[in-house]
Write a structure and sequence with these properties.
25 strands; alpha+beta; about 35% helix; ten-stranded mixed beta sheet; Glutaredoxin
Length: about 575
């Protein structure tokens, strides 16, 4: 190749460099971050300038002189090479997750149990991180954590979605919590609202196993209804939310032991009830505001289910149980765990802890530090006409306080109350518990269950209702014989999960789903040990502190000064 041709190529690259600079500047202003194509463009720009400078030195010689140009070009080439190497290294390091965890208990490395779940992934899974402008830091934490997951398997990919700029995708996946991670594979999806390793791994496990938890909403005791009503004392919003999140929701008649699909109840489609056997491995009971009494047979069936490690969310409706002689005996279901609902209604005296200037419309304090309320900081949970939750002094189960009133609240024990004022000797001073969880190891062995039965909703064709058919659901994830824990979430009022509140208050929605996810766990779910960062103190004496201070304050400047003087003297 002739020298003239090389010069022409160099000049051409020099001309290319000018519009390339303009394009890169516009691109960076538009994107405001170094995307891969901008980095590639910068590398091309550097190469163009370097080739132009090396092949056309006379351009620089006319201005700077031959000797200076030669040394300038050499230095320029070295600088360009260094910049290119650093840029290339940054691009490669962004594509490869390399880290060294030097903490004593490997705080920043995912657990071996998580690795096993990742290794067992059979289908490609996409993790969507949904966030807004207010939760960018949490989004970054989720991205950093999921990088460790993607480095362990090629079946998992991660996408970040800003709900402000892409609301359509957020609506498609029914996103209601900010931030949240949704694992999607095929037609299935699992939502994770608490961004930590344990929650993410369990979400993946639920998605992979394909187990659909069954939520049985009890009926037959004037509980809150599954179909919407004008009073808002219904659970249609809760049913829709549960169904959208892969729960199999059924309406369960505890008297007959039969159930129908909740979708048919809310749509008005008639179905034939089918017998249901309570399965502690797979079922969650939802008892929302019963007003009638449970029979001895019902109590035995439900308490045995709970003793075997079953799960339940139970809400008491004091507004519907004002007549003591006719009031529900739901406390009989809780006697074995030494907890109960009080007979009374809470009056909140703190203006900051009540809504709509109503003393019975509570905005309770959220007691964080547990799985249910850990991610509710800064949110409000609203609950109307609530009673208090009591625990016996002889309780052996783990009792966790979730929501509580202020010290200025009190429980009116006269129902209906003759006055809203505090009555000494009758009423109970706050703070009072309005939501709690109870957990204890099962005291009865769970039955052997190979499959459960659900109902395929009937379909109306030309005015004829087709008969319902029984269909098997997924096999329970917990094998028979695996130890289970009884878990019960108690609510002082069902209004917190009713249509009147749940459909409009994000705090109540998140509380409800956190409670359901807590109840969703069974003995076979993955257990990740707590690895709280440990600190290793480095004691420094007063003399050592003094030496460190004067060494940095005077010692380092003196050393630099001496090096400068030595260099000056040598040149001189």
């Amino acid at each position: 190749m002739s020298r003239n041709l090389i010069k022409q190529i160099g000049k051409l690259l020099g001309f290319v460099a000018v519009p390339l600079i303009i394009v890169l500047a516009i691109g960076f202003i538009a994107v405001r971050r170094f995307e891969w194509y901008l980095i590639l463009g910068l590398l091309v720009l550097v190469v163009c300038i370097a080739v132009f400078a090396a092949t056309n030195p006379e351009v620089w010689q006319r201005r700077l002189g031959r000797q200076r140009v030669s040394s300038t070009i050499s230095g320029f080439v070295v600088i360009i090479a260094l910049v290119g190497i650093i840029a290339l290294a940054n691009v490669l390091l962004q594509r490869v997750n390399i880290q060294f965890d030097l903490t004593q208990n490997q705080t920043f490395t995912i657990n071996d149990a998580s690795v096993k779940v990742l290794e067992k992934l059979n289908q490609p899974v996409t993790a969507f991180i949904f966030y807004s402008g207010n939760t960018q830091s949490q989004q970054q934490n989720a991205s950093d954590l999921l990088k460790q997951y993607t480095s362990r398997t090629d079946k998992l990919t991660v996408q970040t979605v800003n709900v402000d700029s892409d609301p359509i995708t957020a609506q498609k996946y029914n996103v209601k919590t900010d931030p949240s991670v949704i694992f999607a594979s095929g037609t299935r999806q699992e939502e994770v609202t608490t961004i930590d390793e344990q929650s993410l791994t369990r979400g993946l496990l639920r998605l992979e196993t394909g187990v659909t938890r069954r939520v049985l909403i009890t009926t037959g005791h004037q509980e809150y209804t599954p179909d919407a009503n004008q009073q808002g004392t219904s659970l249609s919003a809760a049913i829709k939310a549960l169904t959208d999140n892969n729960y199999n929701v059924m309406i369960y008649n505890t008297s007959t032991g039969t159930a129908t699909q909740a979708s048919s109840a809310t749509s008005g489609t008639a179905t034939t009830p089918v017998p249901v056997t309570l399965d502690p491995n797979n079922d969650i009971l939802l008892i929302a505001g019963p007003r009638g009494k449970f029979s001895d047979d019902e109590k035995t069936r439900i308490t045995n289910f709970l003793k075997q490690g079953g799960k339940a969310l139970i809400a008491y409706d004091i507004a519907g149980n004002q007549d003591a002689t006719q009031a529900t005996n739901v406390n009989d279901l809780l006697a074995d765990w030494k907890v109960s609902f009080a007979r009374g209604i809470i009056i909140e005296g703190d203006q900051d802890k009540r809504a709509q200037e109503s003393a019975t419309y509570l905005v309770p304090t959220i007691d964080t530090g547990n799985d249910i309320t850990a991610n509710l900081t800064g949110q409000n949970v609203f609950i109307l006409n609530s009673t208090a939750i009591n625990k016996d002094a002889a309780i052996t189960a783990t009792f966790t306080q979730l929501l509580s009133t202020s010290e200025n609240s009190y429980l009116k024990t006269t129902i209906p109350p003759a006055t809203a004022e505090y009555e000494d000797g009758k009423d109970v001073r706050g703070p009072l518990v309005v939501a709690a969880s109870v957990e204890q190891q099962a005291t009865m062995a769970a039955p052997t269950v190979t499959a459960t039965t659900t109902v395929t909703p009937s379909v109306t064709i030309s005015g004829t209702t087709a008969a319902a058919t029984a269909a098997p659901t997924a096999t329970p994830s917990t094998p028979s014989g695996t130890p289970l824990n009884t878990r019960i979430v108690l609510l002082g009022s069902p209004t917190a999960i009713s249509d009147a509140v749940l459909s409009s208050q994000i705090g109540d929605y998140n509380f409800f789903f956190n409670a359901m996810n807590y109840l969703n766990e069974t003995g076979s779910d993955i257990v990740i040990s707590d690895r709280t960062p440990t600190t290793t103190p480095f004691p420094v004496s007063a003399s050592q502190s003094s030496v460190a201070f004067w060494s940095s304050f005077l010692g380092l400047p003196v050393v630099i000064l001496l090096i400068g003087l030595a260099a000056w003297w040598r040149r001189r």
